[in-house]
Amino acid sequence: MCGIIGVIDRKRALMDGSSIRDALSLMNERGSGEGAGYAAYGIYPDYQDCYAIHVFFDNLVEPKSRVEEMLHKWGRIVHQEAIPTYEQDGLKKSHIPWRYFFKPYSDLMAGSTTPEDDVMKYIVMETNSNIQGALIFSSGKNMGVFKASGWPEDVANFYRIEDYKGYIWLAHNRYPTNTPGWWGGAHPFNLLDWAVVHNGEITSYGTNRRYVESNGYTCSMFTDTEVVAYLFDLLGRRHGLPEDIVVKALAPPFWDEIDNMPEKEQELNHAIRLTYGPALMNGPFAIVVATHEGIVGFTDRIKLRPLVIGENGNRLYISSEEAAIRVMDPEVQNIHMPRAGEPVIGRLNI
Amino acid sequence: MSLGSVPLKYKVTIDREQCMHCMRCIDNCSYGVYHKEDDRIIIDSRKCTACHHCISMCPRDAISLKERPVDYRSHPLWTAEAREDIINQARTGKIILAGMGNAKPYPVIFDRLVLDACQVTNPSIDPLREPMELRTYLGKKPSRLEIDKKDNGDIELKTKLTPNLKLETPIMIGHMSYGAISLNAQLSLAKAVEKTGTFMGTGEGGLHEAIYPYQKNMIVQVASGRFGVDINYLERGAAIEIKIGQGAKPGIGGHLPGEKVCQDVSCTRMIPLGSDAISPAPHHDIYSIEDLAQLVRSLKEATEWKKPVFVKIAAVHNAAAISAGIARSSADAVVIDGFRGGSGATPKVFRDNVGIPIEAAVASVDQKLKDQGIRNKISVIASGGIRNSADIAKSIALGADAVYIGTGALIAMGCRVCGQCYRGMCPWGIATQRPDLVERLDPEVESEHVANLIRSWTLELSELMGAAGINSIESLRSNRSRLRGYMLDEGTLDVLQVKPVGA
Amino acid sequence: MEKVEIDAKGMHYTPLNEMIREAVRNGAKEIILDNVIGQRFIADGLKADVTIRINGVAGGDLGMFMNGPTCIVNGNCDHAPGNTMDGGTIVIHGSAGDAAAHSMRGGKLFVKNNIGYRGGIHMKQYEEERKPVLVVGGSSHAFLGEYMAGGLILVLGIGQEDPAKDRGIGSGIHGGMIVIRGEVKDELLGVGARKAEFGEKELEMITPYVEEFCKYFDTEPSGLLDMNYTCIVPASTRPFAGKYTWE
């Protein structure tokens, strides 16, 4: 489902959110006005060492105190505030977006090489499955997700997205089927440093879900997209695989292609498919994943969704449609389409 | 070692005392069961399909037919069917192709739903003497009206209605393509819907010139093969239907065997003579819900937003959410085809195992659309295994606006549901392109039979509504409180939003 | 009124198509659309003898169901230009997305550079006079000519080492012909496709389309009119006939 766009400035030059808003609006044909969202990296330089936790509260009484009770238990709230919002005619404010800048205690999670991340992950999973009226939808450092039910321009103006300056932006225009009015169902989907936008439907969701759940994640968003974030977190962060290998696990070559590879490459691909079979994602998808270090875009193995790439100097654009990229950057060069399953990687270069 | 032959499916016998040697059985059987040897009629029962054409034409009622004349050792798991399928596939290594709808003995939900009637507290209505409205409009309805009241008291309607299809009865005939069925069969159906003020689908075989006079009653279909689709075709139809899936074979494409692709079919479909007409499983310009929305809009743009566009899907697990997605597009109706829906050719494993019953699908679609506040954006058409007016009444009470019938209309033209449609030898002249067989079907006569069926069911529907004290079909629609479930499990009752009997 | 100019900046496709139809009704022979950026369905279902020049990026389904017009795009095209098109010509001075010429029934589609996946899928044909043609100057991706029932796909591979290096070429093909410049590896052929000899007759058949291509894009046909092509045709008109047994 939907339309996607992502951009990175490899030299970390900051862009405000106004042009990606216009680009996303251009793809309104791909959405239905019931969900849109943005993710940006580099927007909280004053709190860059803290996890920026974005929460949807149904009210500021019970759920908020329960979330804070947990945060106090696991670390220190450095700062908190309501995320500034601005009323839009086309958008019904169903939740109160709130943000915390949070430092977990690193000595509370035994046996972990990434204790802070694991504390943070635990807090997200606990909140989203057990605290009624609170939903953490963004939990990375120096980054944030802004999303709601509405048309892209309304959601952008609701958060005044042009007030944020980031070097990576992802955006998503949703066409829902199952959970239209639900803000949590909008993309980007985020966990820790990972943000994902996704066009399509993952037909292997049941398999992928059981796999990530057996590795300690809880799927609570009613959307197939969340498994992508968890798979990247599991394979990328916890298993330490580079992003092109993660993509290979998620959208691997066909066996007949592997059979024709040189021996060493064959061995690697063979091992990936045997080990990460439950992580293989089937069905139509075009996905862009971001971390603070870069973005990676890829499609399913038989290219059932569109993905277009463009470049201009340090900027790399990935989108469902060329026209959207041209709205952001009329001077864009080198427009092309990647092959099925081929990762397009834009890494910081500073 | 040979696998040997499996027992006969049917045993045909002739009562030799009754038989007058008129030889009509020989002429009538296109499968070659009978032949003459020295004045004697010899029977090859192995070729019989139980199409009953010989029986129906025998002037002396001399022919008898028995199913499964040879017993296997009885076994509840390894049925005769299971054994014979294995033997067939051991021989061939192929997919088993079958015809007509789901043939597994799943319980029929329709038969476990009962309708309500008035007693004492409110009066029944006699539809013969009192007004009874079955008129149905298919298409988008506004969620509210805006009016402007002038100072002089005149009221001006500011809301503009989108084009709807007007039906005199909520019974339509579903899509059976020219190719799958003969031109005479399509003509009969076309004449019948014209007579009864309703509509039929063209299927995806294009629109033959002979059907042009009935185009105002035709819903033209755009399926994944795009056979016969051009701008003239789109403009001729009263509405356009995008076929995504079919209840008899959810998830796979259509397949018209080359045997049925004659010169005329080759021309309307634009494929080589005698080649299989393959409709891909998906539309290759639809891989996602927003792509469907785009195809709907492309059809609307092409016809300048003058035609309702329907989208037909097979009833699958997620039918409700998919329908909600369809409702968000510019589509005007969603057709849900249940897992008992018919087909000329479908892999047996799909026919018997994939999809869900129409009763559950319609109930959950109607409910999901209401939950999301978008029921008015789309009409719901139920199809797949509707056998009588009670099934129609129950479908509507579960939330449908109208129904499509298919197999029922074919039976009205002679079909005996023998399920051999894919062989192209239908002795009734329905599922065949062989000129001598097609000729047997007289569109004047058969159109009257089909029209009669629609009239009978419409009358019965009026009676059922009258008995329930309802004189307008709107009041039956989604009126679940007028249904009760009999021996249905709690989970199913919950999906249907129907109470058990006595409650 | 022979020539009409329309500024499509910020315009939705429905009013844009209405303006095109209006211009056609008023007798326009040439329509110029400026600042096109992603508008879908341009000339959808249009029956007319008119040339439409599109300056910008044309959105999806350009010329869908179209019968008659010539569309010239100065820029790239999104997915499926020529979708279920009946007649007329589309000339793209750039590249096109996936499913170019989807289910095309007639007319011609010329793409200067590359096309995406599933180009020419399910193209159709009835005898010689109703035969669609897709000519690609550069390269194509997987499943080229999938389910093809008729017509011609010609991939010229200009400036390309390997114009069709992806799998599934002609998968399920049961009519028509795919002609690709240079060699094509056997393992790239799809189910039901086979290579056939590219001879003088085939060269003669493609020559007018090569020349027409070169005329539009101002290149020299001579370097393209030789025997260095691979011809791919149906192995049978019933690729899936052997798949089924009867109940």
Briefly say what this structure is.
Chain B: Keywords: 4Fe-4S, Amino-acid biosynthesis, Flavoprotein, FMN, Glutamate biosynthesis, Iron, Iron-sulfur, Metal-binding, NADP, Oxidoreductase. The complex is a heterotrimer of chains A (350), B (503) and C (247). Chain A has 350 residues and is of the alpha+beta class.
Which two chains share the most extensive interface? B-C, 46 and 49 residues
User: What do we call the CATH homologous superfamily of the domain at 95-240 in chain C?
Assistant: Glutamate synthase, alpha subunit, C-terminal domain
Main beta sheet of chain B:
8 strands, parallel, barrel
Portion of residues in beta strands of chain C equals 25-35%
Low-confidence stretches of chain C: none
CATH superfamily of the largest domain in chain B: Aldolase class I
Uncertain segments of chain B: none
Task: Quickly name the level 1 CATH class of the largest domain in chain B.
Answer: Alpha Beta
Overall radius of gyration of chain B = 24 Å
Can you count the helices of chain B? 15
Mean pLDDT reading of chain C: 95
Describe this structure in words.
The complex is a heterotrimer of chains A (350), B (503) and C (247). Chain A is α+β, with helices and mostly antiparallel strands and 350 residues long. Chain A has a single domain, classed as Aminohydrolase, N-terminal nucleophile (Ntn) domain (Glutamine Phosphoribosylpyrophosphate, subunit 1, domain 1, 4-Layer Sandwich), CATH 3.60.20.10. Chain A is built from ten helices and 18 strands. In chain A, the strands form four sheets. In chain A, strands 8-3-10-1-16-15-17 form a seven-stranded antiparallel sheet, covered by helices on one side. A five-stranded antiparallel sheet of chain A has the order 11-12-13-14-18, covered by helices on one side. A four-stranded antiparallel sheet of chain A has the order 5-6-4-7. Chain B has 503 residues and is of the alpha/beta class. Chain B folds into two domains: 10-94, Alpha-Beta Plaits (2-Layer Sandwich); 136-142 and 156-496, Aldolase class I (TIM Barrel), CATH 3.20.20. Chain B is built from 15 helices and 23 strands. Chain B has helices spanning 24-28, 53-57, 80-92, 183-196, 231-236, 263-269, 289-302, 319-328, 348-353, 358-371, 389-397, 407-412, 435-438, 443-467, 490-496, and strands spanning 10-14, 34-37, 40-43, 63-67, 95-98, 113-115, 136-138, 147-149, 155-157, 165-167, 171-175, 200-201, 218-222, 239-243, 255-256, 277-278, 309-314, 333-337, 346-347, 379-383, 402-405, 483-485, 499-500. An eight-stranded parallel barrel of chain B has the order 11-12-13-14-17-18-20-21, surrounded by six helices. A three-stranded mixed sheet of chain B has the order 6-22-23, with helices on one face. Chain B has a two-stranded antiparallel ribbon with strand order 1-4. Chains in contact: A-B, A-C, B-C. Chains B and C meet through helix 3, strand 5, helix 6 and helix 7 of B and helix 1 and strand 12 of C.
